[in-house]
Amino acid sequence: MVVLRDGRKLIGTLRSFDQFANLVLQDTIERIYVGNCYGDIPRGIFLIRGENVVLLGEIDLDKEERSNLREIPVEEVLVAQREEMEAKQRLEKIRSRVLHEQGFCVDNSQNDLY
Amino acid sequence: MLFYSFFKTLVDQKVTVELKNDLAITGTLKSVDQFLNIKLDDIMVIDEERYPHMSSVKNCFIRGSVVRYVQLPSQAVDTALLQDAARREAAQPTPQQANVRVK
């Protein structure tokens, strides 16, 4: 499983890599997690540029069987994800307003979504 | 090169790597490379509930560029030696090798 800087989680078979941590993933699925649930989107073959890679984790199939995450249909998870994003953005808006009122400088550039 | 050598002395120690995205992972340091990429075995994620995607991962590779901190056991570090090496490095930095691609 590859975690990218934009927050995406891609699961696939690692076919190759190089010194920049560029990766080739086969039979990739993008897995979106919201709360205890997840939804999969099939994506095919990915060539990932190394600079976007946060971490590469080896999935332990036994551990995966024992996990308590439920798979739900993609449409549902996308809706849930959007709601979660909106909630986060509202909180962030309040947070930056309060900080601004206190005299802090609000930094909007550090928004690596991961 | 200094910290690459330093991390090599810490292989097989339990460390906690804190990433720039605030994810913190504890594990056994299995390997390090010139870019300070880190391989951790038998990981445990701090504050697991926030990161459900890590629940089925036991070993991972972490790109050096995303690391914020590496928390180490203090007994594992010879601070005098490290300080001395750092002083030497500051006085005479070793020439940085260009990344050679072997055909």
TrEMBL record, chain A:
Stretches assigned to the Sm domain: 1-62
Family: Belongs to the snRNP Sm proteins family.
Location in or out of the cell: Cytoplasm; Cytoplasm, P-body
Subunit structure: Component of the heptameric LSM1-LSM7 complex that forms a seven-membered ring structure with a donut shape. Interacts with SLBP; interaction with SLBP occurs when histone mRNA is being rapidly degraded during the S phase. LSm subunits form a heteromer with a donut shape.
Gene3D superfamilies linked to this entry: 2.30.30.100
Function comment: Component of the cytoplasmic LSM1-LSM7 complex which is involved in mRNA degradation. Plays a role in the degradation of histone mRNAs, the only eukaryotic mRNAs that are not polyadenylated. Probably also part of an LSm subunits-containing complex involved in the general process of mRNA degradation.
Protein name listed in UniProt: U6 snRNA-associated Sm-like protein LSm1
Keywords in alphabetical order: Cytoplasm, mRNA processing, mRNA splicing, Phosphoprotein, Ribonucleoprotein, RNA-binding
GO cellular component: Lsm1-7-Pat1 complex; P-body; ribonucleoprotein complex
GO BP terms in the entry: deadenylation-dependent decapping of nuclear-transcribed mRNA; mRNA processing; RNA splicing
Molecular function GO labels: mRNA binding
UniProt-listed Pfam families: LSM (PF01423)
Main localization of the protein described in the UniProt heading: cytoplasm
InterPro entries attached to this UniProt entry: Lsm1, LSM_dom_sf, PTHR15588, Sm, Sm_dom_euk/arc
SMART domains: Sm (SM00651)
PANTHER family: LSM1 (PTHR15588), U6 SNRNA-ASSOCIATED SM-LIKE PROTEIN LSM1 (PTHR15588:SF8)
Signal peptide annotation: none
TrEMBL record, chain B:
Listed Pfam families: LSM
Keyword Zinc assigned: no
Highest taxon in the source lineage: Eukaryota
Residues in Sm domain copies: 2-76
Any one GO biological process: mRNA splicing, via spliceosome
Subcellular location: Nucleus
Swiss-Prot/TrEMBL keywords: mRNA processing, mRNA splicing, Nucleus, Ribonucleoprotein, RNA-binding, Spliceosome
Job description of the protein: Component of LSm protein complexes, which are involved in RNA processing and may function in a chaperone-like manner.
Similarity section: Belongs to the snRNP Sm proteins family.
Name of the protein this chain belongs to: LSM complex subunit LSm2
Lineage of the species this protein comes from: Eukaryota, Fungi, Fungi incertae sedis, Mucoromycota, Mucoromycotina
